[in-house]
Structure formats: C-alpha cells, structure tokens
DNA sequence: TCGCGAACAGACAGGTCTGTCTACGCAAGG
DNA sequence: CCTTGCGTAGACAGACCTGTCTGTTCGCGA
C-alpha cells in the first residue's frame, strides 16, 4: 500500500508529518515516491502519478509548481524519512555508539530484504539526471552529509582514532552495498560489508 | 570528441573493434554512449542521437532494431571497453597479482578525474529502469561478474586466504567509490577506498 | 557505364509528455 | 442562505517521443 521504499515500521513516523493522513499532498508524495523509485523519474508521467494518487492534475501543479518541484519534494521527504528510520533503527539496536555502528549493516540488510527495495532514491536520481548539472546532485550531497555526520559523531564517541576516515570508509561500504543489493537483488551485500566494516573498525579502535 | 566515459588511452583499443573507424554503427555507438551517460537514457531521444552521430534515423533502426536494442549494444560495448581498459591499466602498473590489486583504486582515481566521468553506465542504467524487470539488471550483473572474476583470480594468485570474500569486499569499495565520485564529483573517494582496501588485504595476506 | 545496395533526408503517424485552463462539486463559516 | 476556497474532472495546446516509410544520393564492383 505505502508508496515508500522503507521498511514498514518507518511508516507511522512519516504519517505524523502531515496533520491529516490523507490530504492530497501526502497522497501525491506517496504515489510519486513509489513510482519514481520503482520505475525511474523520467519514465513516469504526471498523469500516472495523479491517477495513482487519486487527485486532480491541477492540484499537483498548485502544490508543487512543476514535476521538478514534486521530484524535489519527494527526495526531501524520502530522505528525511529514511534518516529518521535509519538512526532510530541503529539506536534501537544498542545504547552505546560502538554498538550503533555495529548495527549499521544489519540494519541495511533489513532494508535490502524489503519487497520494495529499489536502491537509494538519491543515487538513482543522480544517475538518471544530467551529470553536468548540480540540481539533483546537491540534494543527494545534502542527504549524505547528514547521514555521514551522524556516523562520524558515533565514531568519535566510540573513540575512533580518525572519525573522519572511519566515516568515509563506512560511507563507501554503505553505498557499495546499496548499489550491489539493487543490482543483484541479494541482501548478502550487507553481510560482506559487515565483515569488512568489522576489520576497519578494529583497526580504528584496537588498543 | 570521443563519446566515451573512459580515459583517452582506452580509445585506440576500442577503435580496433570495427573494421572501419567511422562506419555508421561506430558513430551511433559513440554518440549514444556520450549522450546516455551524460544525460541519462530516458532523457535522450533518438533524434538527438542520430543528429549527433550524423546518420539517418532509418540507419539506427536498421542496425539496432529499436532504441532498446541500441541501449543494449551501448552497454555491451562500453562494458567491454571498460573491462579491457581496466585490466590493462592495472596490469601496466605491476606484473604481479598483488601489485595489480594494489593498483585498482589508483586506476579508478584516474577514471574519476576524467572530465567526462559520469559514473558507471551499468549502475546508472539499472537506476533509471524498472526495478521489477531484469532486462537491464542482467547486463549489469554480467559485466560485474566478469570484472569480479578477474579480481578474484588476482586475489587467489596473490595467495589470499579467502579470495571470494576479498573479491566481494573490493567490489563493495569499488562501487561505493564510483557512486560517491559521481555524486560529489570528488576523486578523493578512490583514496579513501585505497586505504580501506589496504587494511582489508593486509588481513587476507598477513602471515 | 550500369546497377545495386548502403546510407541519407525528412515527412509522417500515433502516442505521450508537461503544463494550463475552464467548469463543476462540495463543505465550512458568516 | 450565500459566499469562499479547495479540490475534481477533463479538455486542450504544443512539444517531444518512437518507429515507419518514401524518395534520393552516392560509391563501388562488374
């Protein structure tokens, strides 16, 4: 039902964002998220979106101005929902920073196993837009910076020797795992990433 | 000039594939490669491609049958050219397997620094196509399996404890680096990946 | 010189795209 | 009751899409 690419437990959190759960804006975002993520942004026309959302086309253009505006809103909303789900999920796994870092890849594996896992919407959006423009790239960078800042903080709290390097190494493994999982449809990518992460964090935290 | 996303030294190798260097087929592939990689497959129409290639539209449909056929041919050709360039580049760096593995990320850095680096065409193609279909995903898997088989063989020759695991770990770092470089346009991703790789290979080869 | 096939040029069909516009329904508040 | 405003339904414009088709041009081998 839900239009998202996130695990089901993320849904309620997202619902709280809009006063009414079924206003046209929320229905449009949900329908557009599902369609964009599954079929690609350029492959989906606004008529398909409004039909799935059950709203009038004029409502879409009144609320978002253009298809581009809707794309941006979808990415922002999906990014925020994902970050909330992700940080909550690793926090649920453990109270201490090291435990939360250790939970990153098991939590990603959970994501990959979702029936509707379509990869990272930001990576996919950048991949299908003009690479000489930075409109979409900026949104992706913004999202990634927020995720990485959180990971960097956890690394610093955990006592990593070089939290910045640790952050970048985890980022590489995360994006690599996401892409491999998208292409192969096998969640095992997260398990390989977890073992690699274990070696990297040992090097950072070993006495 | 060249329509590729590869470093210039890869070009001559590619030219050898077609008897004549400037037949319509080669011009179409070159134009389509550049346009698809830079702007996205769905964002480019066949009229733009034939105009850039300087061929008639009927020639495109005679040679490739459909736009889909052209996309598939572009991916196959670009994948083959990339693999040839990549294996040659790491082989040029060192005669022994360990040295070739060590060269992987510096060689990637070289790729990232290209003015026309647009990310991996296979990742991008999967990202913008229907994720519930496997038409494009199969091509990407085929390409990645060939690259990884080569890396696995190098790892085995180098005496890795678990060449399969090493292969998957390198794959994660490679794809992660490619995606990060595409999004940030910073080739430093390859340098972080190299340091991470150093730690992982040490764990595999340490006495 | 002739003939043939490859490629070009470009019109065309039929469909889809984004975005705009008008007309209507309906509910809440004065 | 009546107005105001949100949302719906759907026609429409103009551009662009893929794919086909016709006619022409040009080079090469016999």
Word description of this protein:
The structure is a homodimer of 207-residue chains. With 207 residues, the first copy, chain A, is mainly α. Helices cover 73% and strands 0% of the residues of chain A. The relative contact order of chain A is 0.12. Residues 12-20 of chain A have low confidence and may be disordered. Chains A and B meet through α2, α7, α8, α9 and α10 of A and α2, α7, α8, α9 and α10 of B. The structure holds a DNA duplex (30 and 30 nucleotides).
Report a brief summary of the structure:
The structure is a homodimer of 207-residue chains. In chain A, 73% of the residues lie in helices and 0% in strands.
Helix-strand blueprint:
2 copies of one chain form a homodimer.
Chain A: H1 11-15, H2 24-39, H3 46-53, H4 57-64, H5 67-93, H6 97-112, H7 121-127, H8 135-158, H9 163-184, H10 188-205
Helix pairs in contact in A: 2-3, 2-5, 4-5, 5-6, 5-8, 6-8, 6-10, 7-8, 8-9, 9-10
The structure holds a DNA duplex (30 and 30 nucleotides).
Helix content of chain A: over 70%
Low confidence ranges of chain A: 12-20
SS content category of chain A? mainly alpha
**How confident overall, as mean pLDDT of chain A?**
92
Overall spatial form of chain A = elongated
Which chains share the greatest interface?
Answer: A-B, 48 and 48 residues
Radius of gyration of chain A: 18 Å
Note the quaternary state here. homodimer
């Amino acid at each position: 039902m839900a239009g998202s690419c996130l695990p089901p437990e993320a849904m309620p959190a997202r619902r709280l964002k809009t006063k009414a759960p079924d206003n046209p804006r929320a229905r449009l975002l949900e329908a557009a998220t599902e369609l964009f993520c599954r079929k690609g942004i350029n492959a989906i026309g606004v008529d398909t979106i409004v039909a799935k959302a059950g709203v009038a086309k004029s409502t879409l253009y009144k609320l978002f101005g253009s298809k581009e505006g809707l794309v941006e809103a979808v990415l922002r909303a999906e990014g925020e929902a994902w970050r909330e789900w992700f940080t909550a999920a690793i926090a649920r796994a453990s109270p201490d920073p090291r435990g939360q870092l250790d939970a990153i890849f098991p939590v990603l594996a959970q994501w990959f196993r979702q029936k509707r896992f379509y990869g990272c919407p930001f990576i996919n959006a950048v991949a299908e837009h003009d690479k000489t423009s930075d409109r979409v790239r900026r949104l992706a960078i913004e999202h990634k910076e927020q995720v990485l800042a959180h990971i960097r903080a956890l690394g610093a709290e955990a006592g990593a020797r070089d939290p910045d390097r640790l952050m970048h190494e985890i980022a590489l493994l995360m994006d690599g795992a996401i892409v491999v999982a998208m292409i192969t449809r096998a969640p095992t990518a997260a398990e390989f990433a977890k073992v690699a992460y274990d070696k990297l964090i040992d090097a950072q935290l070993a006495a």
